[in-house]
């Protein structure tokens, strides 16, 4: 079972960098149009477990469908390394693109399929 650890991650060019504390026990593979086209694998954390280290003022926000999730990406390299949103009950959350975490062996993770295309 994965353990709670602090990871660092960010975009391809390094302009956006963050730290996140999570256990990677639940990694979501969503089939919505955005996630599937970008190849996102997501892990969700509370905002107090996420620290944006650099790039905050440069992030570009893209919203689609219900327009409630801030899909944030680097304007230089185009990578969406995380997003901000709310759970259905209104609680704030951060969606981490696990592919953007440093040193992660994706083959060792168990992914959970989610049907976001039908939402």
Automatic annotation (TrEMBL):
Record's keyword terms, sorted: Metal-binding, Zinc
Zinc in keyword set: yes
Gene3D superfamilies associated with the record: 2.170.150.70
InterPro entries in the record: CENP-V-like (IPR052355), CENP-V/GFA (IPR006913), Mss4-like_sf (IPR011057)
Signal peptide (residue range): none
Residues in CENP-V/GFA domain copies: 7-115
Protein origin, superkingdom: Bacteria
Keyword match Nucleotidyltransferase: no
UniProt record similarity statement: Belongs to the Gfa family.
Name this polypeptide is given: CENP-V/GFA domain-containing protein
Organism listed in the record: Inquilinus ginsengisoli
């Amino acid at each position: 079972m994965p353990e709670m650890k602090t990871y660092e991650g960010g975009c391809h060019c390094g302009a956006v960098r963050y730290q996140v504390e999570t256990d990677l026990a639940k990694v979501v593979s969503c089939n919505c149009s955005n996630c599937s086209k970008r190849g996102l694998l997501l892990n969700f954390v509370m905002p107090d477990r996420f620290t944006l280290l650099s790039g905050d003022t440069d992030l570009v926000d893209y919203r689609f469908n219900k327009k409630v999730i801030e899909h944030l990406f680097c304007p230089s390299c185009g990578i969406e390394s995380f997003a901000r949103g709310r759970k259905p009950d209104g609680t704030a959350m951060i969606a981490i693109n696990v592919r953007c975490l440093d040193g992660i062996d994706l083959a060792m993770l168990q992914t959970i399929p989610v049907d976001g295309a039908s939402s």
